[in-house]
Amino acid sequence: MARVATSPKLADAYTDALPASRALFERAQRLFPDAVTHDNRRMQPFPLYVDRAEGALKWDVDGHRYIDYWMGHGALLFGHNPPAVRDAVREQASKGTHYGACHAGEVEWGEWVCRLVPSAQRVRFTASGTEATHMAVRLARAFTGKRHVVKFAGHFHGWHEGLEIGVRPPYEAEPEAGQLPEVVDLVSVLPPNDIVAVRERLARGDVAAVILEPTGGHFGSVPTPAAFVHALRDETRRTGALLIFDEVVTGFRVAPGGAQELLGVTPDLTTLAKILAGGLPGGAVAGREDVLAYLATKPNAKKIAHHGTFNANPLTAAAGVAMLAAVADGQAIRVANAQAAKLRHGLNEILARENVGWKIYGEHSDWKIFFGAGAPPRDGADQSVADVDWRRLDAKDAERSRALRQALILNGVDFNGARALVSTCHTDAILEETFAAFETAIRAMREEGLA
Ligand SMILES: Cc1ncc(COP(=O)(O)O)c(C=O)c1O
Predict the structure, then answer these.
(1) How confident is the model over 400-428, as pLDDT tens digits?
(2) Ligand 1 mean position to 448 CA, how many Å?
(3) Which CATH number fits domain 10-80+330-447: 3.90.1150.10, 1.20.1070.10, 3.20.20.70, 1.10.3720.10?
């Protein structure tokens, strides 16, 4: 795509460049609320419609090529269409996509989960991460006989009504449209990384589980110090609440065994999805045998009924097995982490050179952008957050985020406007292209008074 060095009107340039996407958007407006099928895919003036993808790249319906930093909402660690996964899916598709029966693939997939994830004594597959966190909370209530759940402001655990609470500003435990107040009342939303607040809440003795994204809300947008996670383990153990790690994003990404391996903290339950399922739909709850026993049939005892047409479907199981086998030795994770660190460094250099006060940060195979003035978290492993207001870190700057996305798309790069996921396919050459696009995009934003 032609470079747009100084567009005075990014939105107009975007509209002019993407007529086929615009035409699809017009059709979609007559079909879908907001014209999209996932809230995060909304985009002004209209979203990009993608036609195909390979490695770190994707192509839109107008024929433009992009470096992709969405990476399937975090489901892809080896880029798009990695040969091992593609071949496994192709072979399985030729044998059937759904047997409505037990099959060898689900056993192999389950063995991989239990081999890699430290807390996984038993596992049950679901069709998504949302289903997994829903089930984890049910299990915790069944096991403890208690009703309440503690979660942290800005931590996302899927869209079901039991946990879609306190995720966005103003982070209140207020019902959304159609959400029952009595369900919301069972969830305490605490400030992130505040062990005193946790201690006080657990002291009431009515908490079934504490759930968190173990590296911090929105994959570490507000980083969680390791010491907090260790303290959380101690407090939950002491008070009899279960500790649930939502590793839907961190699982198989920050270490083969997820954040629990990295931090050396074993939760009671773990929720998984994304990389777990090799880029196809799927999720899982893993954890203590005595807790998952509530999914098993026992004489004269209550259990959790669990159905689900697509649980461990053969296609997803084949993709999952290929993915987990490729992740197991940790090499891919190291490569993606190293490329992400180079990206963060290079993008920060551009910001400094251009005299723009934003900051790129992150710790694993990702980069995030902090548009605000003031102290951002440090980049890399030592992400001290003591001196940073977590609300400002989690806040979006909607106008800048939109403009940066438009400007980057016009220069052949796509990310979600706040966070970017990096894969093994983001080679040094891809990084160099990203840096050039970012520099041009920043200058285009300056033309609009936004940088
Ligand atoms: C931490 C976390 N938990 C749960 C979910 C929900 O997973 P799914 O989209 O598969 O329902 C997500 C999705 O982004 C997530 O990031």
Answers:
(1) 999 999 999 999 999 999 999 999 999 99
(2) 35
(3) 3.90.1150.10
